[in-house]
Amino acid sequence: MKNESEKFLSAVAQVVADKKGFNLLALDVSEFSNITDYLFIAEGNVDRHVRAIAASVIEEMKKAGIRPVRVEGLHVGDWIVIDYLHVIIHLFMPGQRDNFQLEQLWSKGRVVDLEVQQTA
After folding, report:
1. Which residues, other chains included, contact 58 with Cβ-Cβ below 8 Å and sequence gap of 6+?
2. Dihedral (C-alpha) 60, 61, 65, 67: value to the nearest 10 degrees?
3. Helix or strand run (H / E) with residue 43
4. Smallest Cα–Cα separation from 23: which of 45, 7, 51?
5. Model-level pTM greater than 0.90?
6. Which CATH number is 67's domain given?
7. pLDDT digits over 25-71, tens only?
8. What is the mean pLDDT of residues 83-102?
């Protein structure tokens, strides 16, 4: 059975997928990070798309009674960070993700299997 954080990650992944975000990845970094337990990384097509994805994630999680502690980059949209303490969400425009190489920085993390329903 998945823990609450992994259920939260799957819910976030579903929102991102529904908004046509792509290259979704979740990493469990709890074994070696004192910042967070999980990282979620995804991309949008352009800055407006990334901002729309972020706004949808924030809104849907608020509906579930979960509010972010901090949001950075929402006005620019090339890299948005949404901090829920136990999960930090990184949303990038293509190319920006490659610049910061979070997957390499957190390469010791365990990849989390995300449950996402594909919509037509």
Report:
1. 68, 71, 82
2. -130
3. strand 38-43
4. 45
5. yes
6. 3.30.460.10
7. 999 999 999 999 999 999 999 999 999 999 999 999 999 999 999 99
8. 91
**Other Cβ atoms closer than 10 A to 17:** 18
* Residue 50 exposure: Cα atoms within 13 Å on the Cβ side: 28
What token pair was written down for 22?
């792509």
In a domain, 116, yes or no: no
Residues 5, 38 contacting (CB under 8 angstroms): yes
Number of domains the chain is built from: 1
Q: Domain residues for 78? A: 4-102
Are 38 and 29 spatial neighbours (Cβ–Cβ below 8 Å)? yes
Whole-angstrom Cα distance, residue 63 to residue 66? 7
Question: Which residue is listed with tokens 């729309």?
Answer: 52
- Report the relative pairing of strands 38-43 and 87-92 from DSSP bridges: parallel
Q: Which residue has the tokens 């620019």?
A: 76
d(CA 77, CA 31): 30
